[in-house]
Amino acid sequence: MLRFFSAIKFIKYREYKMNDNETMIATTNFTIINTVLCWCGPLHEETLTKILLVIQVNFYLINF
Question: Smallest Cα–Cα separation from 51: which of 37, 63, 31, 30?
Answer without folding.
Answer: 37
